[in-house]
Amino acid sequence: MNKKITYKDAGVDIKKADEAIEMSKTEINSTFSQHVLSSIGGFGSMYSLKDIFNNYQDRYLPHSLKKSKAQLQ
Fold first, then answer.
1. DSSP per-residue codes, 8-68
2. pTM score, two decimals?
3. What is the pLDDT of residues 14-27, one digit of tens each?
């Protein structure tokens, strides 16, 4: 199979997603505390756990969400 599958083929409209993120940035950023280590735009986020776990040198929680088109329906 040589056909290249695109995001659009999977039902993803990147332009609309970018527009939705841009319109939501202020509201999303208002939910951040000092523990949020990354911002909008990546496939995941980083959250500092340094105030919760003191026995570890690197106290970060990486987080990623991925849902298929079927899960969103």
1. GGGT--HHHHHHHHHHHHHHHHTT--TTB---TTSSEEEEE-TTT--S-S--EEEEE----
2. 0.49
3. 899 889 888 988 89
